[in-house]
Amino acid sequence: MGISKNKMVSLSYELKIDEENGSIIEQTTSEEPMKFIFGTQRIFPVFESKIKGLEEGNDFKVCIKSEEAYGKVDEKAIVDIPKNIFELEGKFDEDKIKVGNVIPMVTENGQQLQGLVLEVSEESVKMNFNHPLAGKDLYFSGKVLEVRDATEKEIADSTNENSCNCEEGGCGEGNCNCEEGGCGEGNCNCDEK
Known about the structure:
This protein is mainly beta. It has helices at residues 45-51, 152-159; strands at 7-17, 24-28, 34-37, 59-64, 78-82, 87-88, 91-92, 102-106, 112-120, 124-128, 138-149. Strands 1, 2, 3, 4 and 11 form a 5-stranded antiparallel beta sheet that branches. The chain has a 4-stranded antiparallel beta sheet with strand order 5-10-9-8, with no helix packed on it. A two-stranded antiparallel ribbon has the order 6-7.
């Protein structure tokens, strides 16, 4: 059975950035594979197009250029924020706000972002709000572990925007929207829906 629309696919893989022989930044195993329903727009379309038709036991190598993955680095997403924004009870939090730390932030519109601290000066904190893999080419190599028909429930859950997808590892890609706390800190609360 080949990979096609509405098939539940299980993969093990290694992900490297910028070159095929680079260091591994992510890895799944046969014991803890990546599982997804093909064709539900949960993964990069170019990745899906390159594994379409593969069968259980097939190996694969897929390169996704940065433009088709997380995009190029957006210089507008690198900003200086006044240092007083990071004060807690009138004191700047030097332990938390230091170069290399990723800080959760919320925009005026309530959008949650993760910002990497690049520099701390007297007046401001320079932060990068680009995805950590922006500007990086992605190199996947792996094996198809299983291909089967997805159940109607699995398909419904994967296409429901308010689904936590607990069976598939939680919120992933901003797909939670649970009203009772969401998936933050491992708290999926799918049963609360």
